[in-house]
Amino acid sequence: MPAQPTHKSLLVNGIDLSITEQGQGPLVILCHGFPELGRSFRYQLAALAEAGFRAVAPDMRGYGRSDAPADSAAYSIFHLVGDIVALVHALAEERAYLVGHDWGASVVWSAAWMRPDMFPAVVGISVPARPRSPQPPLQSLAAEGYSDLYWMYFQEPGVAEAEFERDVEDTLRRLMLAPQRDNGLRVPAGTGFLDGMRAPSALPAWLPHADLDALANEFRRTGFRGGLNWYRNIDRNWELTAPFQGAVVRQPALFIAGTRDPLIGGPAGAAALAQLPQVVPGLRRQLLIEGAGHYVNEERADEVNAALIAFLRGL
Question: Candidates 3.40.50.2300, 3.60.21.10, 3.40.50.20, 3.40.50.1820; correct CATH number of 6-135+230-313?
């Protein structure tokens, strides 16, 4: 049996980053998304350790026990990738395999084309890599009639925070367990993001009450502003990444998603999946797990773990 996970805080890139670590061997860093914590990879940490890897899952900048700078500009993609680069060094390593879910996938794809020397292989979960758009994303979406997309709703500081923090456990239940929203990811004027989302009363096996309580307790303590600040850098990230226009991921890569994930649904999601081999010419496998939703690494941990370990062992 692999050693039990350990927890500690490291000074990286000017902030304290809280990490969970398990196992010994080649380093694998797992980057979570919104609204979760490093513990969302609890099933992967144990499996990777058992398979002979050193698995490390940080609470990303703005989350959990890690620092959450007050300035929203401190959450740009350069800060987020910089945190992972600095974490590799703080762990006394030179390279790491990266795994990212949701926003963490965006960090992983960006890290792959910013620092191919340091990240020799990557795994994206739920969010496919996309080419840099010709115009600022929020501006483009508004011009295309998507001014009520949830990205827009998250822009004004305090609005989404107030909605999500009224009842944190209910928010997490809706975000993680509610069926796909009837209006997709749009938030019409006068409504909130959670409106119309009704989570089942019983928790699924992959999210025991103890795990939901731990997640809710952290967000009650920290609030949601740190995570929401990632969204408030979408157009800033576009500006900062101008030097990487046309960059692709040539390293070996794996993409995993659930077929019921709204982020790969609809015309935009289908287009992103079709385009993925051009954006990631190193793509070795695209695994779509039938019937799984957005939190596929927790919902269908055995299938995700098998694919992840097979990919890493095959490098």
Answer: 3.40.50.1820
